[in-house]
Amino acid sequence: MSPTVFRWKGYRFYFFSREEPRIHIHVYCSDGEAKFWLEPDVTLARNYRLSESQIGELTEVIRDRKDEIEAAWKKHFRS
């Protein structure tokens, strides 16, 4: 199961269930995909075919919506 947390400009931000305990978010679009850690700071974990400018933009979106992502993580993984 990989629930969508939100969509933004053609990007899907989602979790993989039971992947690992450290808070992170996956991002997918037709150009590629990436994984970002949220702790201790928002940092890129993996990148598959996204440009530097895309990664920079996504990093900012994740920083801006970090509280929302963390709340969704806690709600989803509580069960």
Textual characterization of the structure:
With 79 residues, this protein is α+β, with helices and mostly antiparallel strands. 33% of the residues lie in helices and 34% in strands. Strands 1-2-3-4-5 form a five-stranded antiparallel β-sheet, covered by helices on one side. It is globular. The mean pLDDT is 94.
Summarize the structure.
The chain is an alpha+beta fold. It has 2 helices and 5 strands; from the N terminus they run E-E-E-E-E-H-H.
N/C terminus separation: 13 Å
How many domains? The number is: 1
Strand order of the largest sheet: 1-2-3-4-5
State the share of residues found in helices, binned by percent.
25-40%
Q: Give the structural class.
A: alpha+beta
**Biggest pleated-sheet summary:** 5 strands, antiparallel
Radius of gyration: 12 Å
The number of helical segments is: 2
Note the run of SSEs as H and E: EEEEEHH
Strand content: 25-35%
Mean of all residue-level pLDDT scores? 94
Using DSSP, what is the number of strands? 5
Mass-distribution shape: globular
Low-confidence parts lasting 5 or more residues at pLDDT below 50?
none
Observed structural traits:
single chain, about 80 residues, alpha+beta, globular
